[in-house]
Specification:
alpha+beta, 216 residues, two-stranded antiparallel sheet
Length: 216
């Protein structure tokens, strides 16, 4: 349940540290912080409002980037997983060697702020699904479960048969702004209400593969 990460200083290996996976119940609690209900109706926020709230809540550089270009940051799934990890004690560092700055000078990891999160400036967030996968593999090792998915075949029963809870990544063709979706699987359903495991509900997208990291 833990990964071993090599720590480097000035390009030289100086030792290894163990990165433990947070407990599932704590991850779940913190993840759901970013899914508030509408204060007037009591209903969950719609997708756009939910994304806005996630960036607003973490604040800082992350929210400023969102306001600068909402369409480029229109998917908050990786940000939410980052938040849950941070708030559960697995702090994402400001820099990770496997996530260098982009060719155009952009940052792979964005700093939060103190507007709503106590000491929020010390937390950092990954906002890209590809980079989140890279980070999880870096910190915890390869996914506990990785499988290619037969085209147009529901994976709901297969997910339930795992009898596990944890972080699930759906690789999906057909998105204009992402290569997949990250969420928390509770053993029966996805905590964010997403249903990408069932292709009949998403005729414009194609689920191609699943990665899963178990949390106890």
């Amino acid at each position: 349940m833990a990964g071993i990460v090599t720590v480097k200083e000035k390009g030289k290996d100086i030792g290894k540290v163990v990165v433990k996976r947070p407990p599932y119940d704590l991850i779940k609690e913190k993840y759901l912080d970013l899914f508030p209900n509408n204060v007037d109706t009591g209903a969950p926020l719609d997708s756009a409002a939910s994304v806005y709230f996630a960036y607003l809540w973490v604040g800082g550089h992350a929210f400023r980037e969102y306001k600068r270009n909402p369409s480029a940051y229109g998917n908050a799934c990786a940000l939410r997983i980052s938040y849950a990890l941070n708030m559960s004690g697995m702090l994402i560092p400001s820099k990770v060697s496997v996530l260098p700055t982009t060719k155009i000078g952009g940052n792979r990891i964005l700093q939060g702020g103190n507007e709503y999160v106590i000491d929020g400036g010390k937390y950092y967030y990954i906002y890209s699904i590809e980079n989140l996968i890279t980070f999880l593999e870096y910190a915890w090792g390869k996914a506990d479960i990785f499988k290619y998915v037969p085209k147009r075949v529901s994976q709901l029963d297969e997910l339930k048969k795992m009898n596990k809870k944890g972080i699930v990544i759906f690789y999906i063709d057909g998105f204009s702004d992402a290569t997949g979706h990250a969420t928390i699987w509770d053993g029966v359903k996805c905590l964010d209400g997403s249903t990408y495991y069932d292709p009949s509900l998403h005729p414009k997208q194609t689920l191609t593969a699943i990665k899963f990291w178990d949390l106890k």
